[in-house]
C-alpha cells in the first residue's frame, strides 16, 4: 500500500482518458507539439467501441482506423492499457487502478496539466419482461462478443431497439454466419427515411449505408416495431422467442439471441465527478472542447452522439487546443459544424416513443444488479429515494444501466456522482483514501 503512495506520480502535460477514436485523435494531435502525452483506457488495447480489436491486425483494419493506429504508434505517446480512473485528488491529479493484475489492481496517482476526457458512450437498455434472460444481450454487446470469438454461425438472431448501430450490428453478425431474422426499429418510417435522405450530403456515410444495405439484403427491417417480451425455456431458461409489436400487430419470433439496444447514453460520470457542467445529459463544452472546468477538455460521445467522424474531429480539436495549437483548431471548425448537424438529425430521427414506457410490468426487474422490480421502484418519487429505499443503482454497475432506464421511465435525474467511478477493490479504496488524507495533510501544512 505504501509503495504506491510513496512513488512520485507520473506527470503529463496532456493526459487523455479513453483510447477510442476521440482519445486516439486527441493524443496524436496533442503530441505533435512536443507535449508529454499519456493515454489510459480500461481495455487492454486501444480502439474503443468501433475499432475494438482492429489494432491487432492493421492489414484487416478499415483505412481510417489504420491511419490513426499508425499515427498513434509512431507518436511519442505513453499508453497505459487496462487502467481506469477511480477518483480524483486535488486539481491536476487522478487516482487510477490497473485492472489486469487480478485479483487486486495496483493503485497510483497520475498528474496532468491538461486533461482530455474521451470516455465514449454505452448502450441504452430499456426493461421489458424477459430482458434479463440468458441470450438477451445488448446489440453492441453481442457484436463485441462475436469480435472476441463467440461463434454465432447458424444462430437465429433478432436485432431490436433503435439507431443506426442496429444495422451495423446486424451486418456484422450476418457476416459471421448468423441467421438474422428481423431488425426491429422503434422509430417510425417517416423519421428514418428523412434521416436516410440526409446522408446524401455525407458521401462516406452514404457509401457505408449502401454497403450495409448490400450485406443485409433479404433481412426484414421493420420500423415502428419493438420488443415487448422475451420468453425462455422454463423459469429463467435460455431465450426461445421474442414477442414484438408493430402497427396493430403483436407476434412472436423464434430466436437464439435477441440483440437489443435503444441507442446510446454518454459516459459522463467522470466529467461530473470533476465538476464539469452537464447540459441535457451531455458534457457542456465550448468551441475548443473545453468544459466548464478550466484545463479539462472533453471530446467524442460524452459531448454528443454523432458517430465516429464527429468523435475524431472533436478529439483533434481538444488535442490541439490542450497543446495550445490555436491555428490548427480554426481549420477544423467547418467540419465540426457539418458533423454537429448530422448529430442533431440522428437525435431527432431516433427519439424514443412514449409506448416503450408501457412495455414493463410490475414484475419486470429494472435494476438487474440488485434484482429490484418495477413495482418497488415506482413507489418512489426520485432516483435518490428509490436508491435509498430499494438499493436500485447500488450494485456493481453503479446505476449505469438502471439510471438511464429510470430516467426514461419516470423522468428521474441521477443527481450526484460519487467515487469510485468504477467498482474498486477494498484495497484500492484504502489506498485512494490514504492518498487523499496525505494530500489533505500536505495542503494543510502548506497553508500554515
Ligand atoms: C457497444 C457499442 C458498439 C458500437 N459499435 C459500433 C459499430 O459497429 N459501428 C459504428 O459506426 N459505431 C459503433 N458504435 C458507436 C461508436 O462507439 C462511436 O461512433 C465511436 O466509437 C465513439 O468514439 P469515442 O472515442 O467517442 O468513444 P469510445 O469508442 O466508446 O471510446 C471510449 C473509451 O474510453 C474508455 N473509458 C471510459 N471511461 C473510462 C475510465 N474512467 N477510465 C479508463 N477508460 C475509460 C472506454 O472503455 C472506451 O475504450 C458503438 C457504440 C457502442 C457503445
Report on this model:
- By secondary structure, this protein is an alpha/beta fold.
- Helix content is 35%, strand content 23%.
- It has helices spanning 2-6, 21-31, 63-74, 139-147, 165-175, 189-198, 203-215, 269-273, 308-322, 326-349, 374-377, 383-390, 402-410, 426-447; strands at 10-17, 37-40, 77-80, 83-88, 93-98, 107-117, 121-123, 136-137, 156-162, 179-185, 221-222, 225-232, 239-246, 249-254, 257-262, 264-266, 278-279, 282-283, 296-298, 365-367, 372-373.
- Strands 1, 2, 3, 4, 5, 6 and 19 form a seven-stranded mixed sheet that branches.
- Strand 2, helix 3 and strand 3 form a beta-alpha-beta unit.
- The longest helix is centred in the C-terminal third of the chain and has 24 residues, at 326-349.
- It is globular and about 70 Å long.
- The mean pLDDT is 91.
Question: Could you write a compact summary of the structure shown?
Answer:
Helices cover 35% and strands 23% of the residues.
The number of strands is 21
Main sheet properties: 7 strands, mixed
Low-confidence stretches: none
Number of helices: 14
Radius of gyration: 22 Å
Structural class: alpha/beta
Overall form: globular
Structure ligands:
flavin-adenine dinucleotide
Please, what is the average pLDDT? Answer: 91
Instruction: Tell me the fraction of residues in β-strands, as a range.
Output: 15-25%
Termini separation (Å)?
A: 28 Å
Helix % is: 25-40%
Amino acid at each position: 500500500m505504501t509503495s504506491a503512495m510513496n512513488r512520485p506520480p507520473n506527470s503529463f502535460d496532456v493526459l487523455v482518458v479513453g483510447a477510442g477514436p476521440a482519445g486516439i485523435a486527441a493524443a496524436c494531435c496533442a503530441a505533435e507539439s512536443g507535449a508529454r502525452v499519456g493515454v489510459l483506457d480500461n481495455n487492454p488495447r486501444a480502439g474503443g467501441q468501433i475499432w475494438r480489436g482492429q489494432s491487432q491486425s492493421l492489414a484487416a483494419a478499415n483505412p481510417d482506423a489504420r491511419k490513426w493506429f499508425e499515427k498513434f504508434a509512431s507518436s511519442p505517446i505513453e499508453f497505459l492499457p487496462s487502467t481506469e480512473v477511480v477518483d480524483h485528488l486535488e486539481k491536476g491529479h487522478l487516482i487510477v487502478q490497473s485492472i489486469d493484475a487480478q485479483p487486486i489492481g495496483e493503485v497510483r496517482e497520475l498528474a496532468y496539466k491538461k486533461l482530455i476526457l474521451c470516455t465514449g458512450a454505452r448502450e441504452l437498455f430499456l426493461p421489458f419482461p424477459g430482458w434479463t434472460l440468458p441470450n438477451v444481450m445488448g446489440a453492441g454487446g453481442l457484436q463485441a462478443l462475436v469480435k472476441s470469438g463467440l461463434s454465432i454461425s447458424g444462430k437465429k438472431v433478432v436485432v431490436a431497439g433503435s439507431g443506426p448501430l442496429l444495422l451495423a450490428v446486424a451486418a456484422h453478425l450476418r457476416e459471421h454466419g448468423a441467421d438474422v431474422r428481423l431488425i426491429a426499429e422503434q422509430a417510425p418510417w417517416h423519421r428514418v427515411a428523412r434521416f436516410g435522405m440526409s446522408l446524401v450530403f455525407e458521401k462516406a456515410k452514404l457509401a457505408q449505408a449502401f454497403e450495409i444495405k448490400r450485406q443485409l439484403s433479404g433481412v426484414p427491417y421493420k420500423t415502428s416495431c419493438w420488443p415487448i417480451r422475451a420468453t425462455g425455456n422454463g423459469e429463467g431458461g435460455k431465450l426461445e422467442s421474442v414477442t414484438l409489436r408493430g402497427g396493430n400487430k403483436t407476434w412472436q419470433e423464434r430466436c437464439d439471441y435477441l440483440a437489443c439496444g435503444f441507442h446510446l447514453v454518454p459516459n459522463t460520470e467522470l466529467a461530473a465527478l470533476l465538476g464539469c457542467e452537464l447540459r441535457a445529459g451531455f458534457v457542456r463544452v465550448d468551441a475548443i472542447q473545453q468544459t466548464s472546468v478550466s484545463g479539462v477538455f472533453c471530446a467524442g460521445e460524452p459531448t454528443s452522439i454523432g458517430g465516429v467522424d464527429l468523435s475524431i474531429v472533436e478529439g483533434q480539436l481538444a488535442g490541439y487546443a490542450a497543446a495550445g495549437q490555436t491555428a490548427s483548431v480554426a481549420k477544423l471548425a467547418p467540419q465540426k459544424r457539418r458533423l454537429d448537424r448530422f448529430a442533431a438529425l440522428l437525435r431527432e430521427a431516433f427519439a424514443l416513443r412514449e409506448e416503450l414506457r408501457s412495455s414493463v410490468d410490475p414484475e419486470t426487474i429494472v435494476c438487474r444488479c440488485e434484482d429490484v422490480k418495477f413495482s418497488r421502484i415506482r413507489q418512489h418519487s426520485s432516483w435518490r429515494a428509490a436508491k435509498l429505499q430499494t438499493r436500485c443503482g447500488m450494485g456493481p454497475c453503479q446505476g449505469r444501466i438502471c439510471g438511464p432506464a429510470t430516467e426514461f421511465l419516470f423522468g428521474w435525474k441521477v443527481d450526484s456522482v460519487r467515487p469510485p467511478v468504477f467498482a474498486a477493490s477494498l484495497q484500492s479504496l484504502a489506498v485512494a483514501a490514504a492518498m487523499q488524507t496525505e494530500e489533505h495533510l500536505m495542503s494543510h501544512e502548506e497553508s500554515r
